[in-house]
């Protein structure tokens, strides 16, 4: 499967790109469970090295319920990105509705120890409309 990044945001020379895909094989619409996988690429085009310290996600489901998720690093790592470097990782998001959205920010630590927030772009989560995945009316 060839991925392309559908969403991007740049903050202070750091670009966050997102590709998101619905995974029907991990989803069970009949049980009210839908699952997406997202691939993130973080590119440091700034003039200084920065370490990713924390993440904050705002995940909204199709009913408007918001879940805030905070944690250290990404998938167990706190990568150091020197100028020109990028870091890729893949993670997933389950929802109890066939659509929703995600957005958030990373907190990076600059070489002088000061923090900076880097925006993660808003991206929709949407299951294809199928007989099984259609929202009850």
Automatic annotation (TrEMBL):
PANTHER family recorded: F-BOX ONLY PROTEIN 3, POLYMERASE DELTA-INTERACTING PROTEIN 2
PROSITE patterns named in the record: APAG (PS51087)
Protein origin, superkingdom: Bacteria
GO biological process assignments: error-free translesion synthesis
InterPro entries with a match to the protein in the record: ApaG_domain, ApaG_sf, Uncharacterised_ApaG
Record protein name field: Protein ApaG
Gene name tied to this protein: apaG
The ApaG domain, residue ranges: 8-132
């Amino acid at each position: 499967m060839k991925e392309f990044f559908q969403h991007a945001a740049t903050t202070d020379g750091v670009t966050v790109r997102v590709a998101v895909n619905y995974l029907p094989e991990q989803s069970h619409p009949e049980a009210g469970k839908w699952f997406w996988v997202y691939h993130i690429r973080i590119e440091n085009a700034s003039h200084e090295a920065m370490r990713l310290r924390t993440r904050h996600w705002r995940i909204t489901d199709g009913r408007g319920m918001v879940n805030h998720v905070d944690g250290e690093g990404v998938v167990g790592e706190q990568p150091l990105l020197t100028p020109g470097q990028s870091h890729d990782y893949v993670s997933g998001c389950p929802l109890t509705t066939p659509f929703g959205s995600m957005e958030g920010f990373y907190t990076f630590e600059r070489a002088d120890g000061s923090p900076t927030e880097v925006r993660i772009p808003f991206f929709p989560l949407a299951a294809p409309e199928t007989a099984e995945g259609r929202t009850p009316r």
